[in-house]
Amino acid sequence: MSVLFCLEKTLVRRVIVILTVAYSVRPQEKDGDMSLWINRCTLKVNWTIQTNPDGCFPSLYSVRLLKNNQEITTSGTTLTSYSFEGTDSESTYRVIVSPILECNNGSRPRGNSLDHSISAIPRSQQTFITKYISDDFTLQCPLNGSYTPFSVEWEHKIGIDSTIVRKFTTPEITLTDVSYKDSGKYVCTVGFYSCGGSGLRRKLTSSVSLNLNGPPYITMPQQRVVADPVDNLTLSLSLISFPAPFSLVLVRNQKNEIIHRSSVSFAPTEVTLSAFGRVVKLYGYSCRLNMPNITREWFGTNSIIVFNRLGNYSRSFIVEELSDRENFFVRFLKDNLLLVAIVGGSILAVSIVVIVTVICLDIRKKRKQKCMSLDNNRLPESAFADNCNQHIYARPFSFGNNRLNQDARELQSLKDHEKQIELEGRQCASMYSCAGFSLNEFQDDSIVYDNQFAPGYT
Predict the structure, then answer these.
(1) Cβ-count burial of 19 within 10 angstroms (0-12 exposed, 13-18 middle, 19+ buried)?
(2) Which SS3 state, helix, strand or coil, does residue 162 take?
């Protein structure tokens, strides 16, 4: 019995001890709040103190500032803010704010103190923020510590491949009426001087990741389809949506009448988005929208409407009747006028070159045929050469007043063959003119040679 009593007494003591400890670590009520930050080389402090329910309220605040746990200044103020200029970039600062209360009974007790510390050593810090479509806000480079900046450079990266789409050189970035193309990561690089007189030049890089929530956004351009009544239409949809899209999809015609209602299954996929002149890949959703048995009320401009819990978005598409293909081709020519002009000009230029080439070849062919016809009508080459030689060299010579005596038969032969000689000379001239000689070189029938150096010719 004594053993059991001792055990029970011991257990009771343990329970009492546990309950006492649990009560002692219960968090006390919050007496106030204090925030510290450093702007360049200046430490700034704000605080709030709760009013004492016993009728006491703060009338004065005692502010103690410690640097690396060594007190450097103490001051009193009635304000709820404090600043200290002259921090350095290698220390840690501690601020203790003690309120002096003024009670209804005339006493002035000291309230509970607020105690916070902050490091002045410059360091980068990645920040993640979430905003909504169409919001306006400002981004600041999340670089903590005490420093004096001399340059700030920003790069806006977006998409799966972290494509750089924009650059800034301002200390802050102000964004207005934001859309999904403004989302992504904003990387900032700050060049700065260290505070505290060291004058060191350094650079640190930090970033702000911006997530945007809002209605869906269909990334594909306007689609145009050609169909007949009772045809089945199928369109591919790709969109960005945070949060995820609903399965409901509506189609309205140009009279704003709902002509189709469908429940689709959106699958996560990669989609493309045009952002500031670049095409980037983002995570999104896609589906195929099947619309069977269309009627004539579909022809014209219609709207596809998609939804999520933050709103909806619509994208138009055009349905044209198949019999209107003439209009389709005319519209194609109008929409691609520059392309048609380039292709037509190229065809015209090629045609001109071909025509000129054919004409030149035809002229050359005719000249060649003319030369060949002359060659076919002349005597054999040996006889023709002899006749040419006779014609050129067997002409009578004159030596001034002394004319040579010639045989009567030879003179008669020369007279009979005068016409034949003339024809042979023309044939000879024609042959050589094809080779580049002039016709005048062979028309020597009227030439009289006066050779003073051959008086003995017989």
Answers:
(1) exposed
(2) coil
Alpha-carbon span 53 to 30, nearest angstrom:
13
Q: How far apart are CA 275 and CA 180, in angstroms?
A: 9
Residues shown for the chain: 458
- Please list, in sequence order, all residues whose beta carbon lies within 8 angstroms of the beta carbon of residue 73, skipping any fewer than 6 positions away: 64, 65, 84
Pick from 209, 303, 307: which is nearest to 256 by CA?
Answer: 303
Residue 77 near residue 61 (C-beta atoms within 8 A): yes
- CB within 8 Å of 87: residues ≥ 6 apart: 38, 41, 42, 43, 93, 120, 146, 195, 196
State pLDDT tens for residues 106-147. Answer: 788 888 899 999 999 999 989 999 999 999 999 999 999 999
Structure tokens at 441: 């070189």
**Section 268-293 average pLDDT:** 94
Q: How many CB atoms lie within 10 A of CB 9?
A: 10
pTM for the whole structure: 0.61
Give the three-class secondary structure for 375: helix
Q: What distance in Å separates the CA atoms of residue 41 and residue 391, rounded to the nearest whole number?
A: 118
Residue 339 scores a pLDDT above 50: yes
Rounded Cα gap, residues 192 and 141, in angstroms: 13
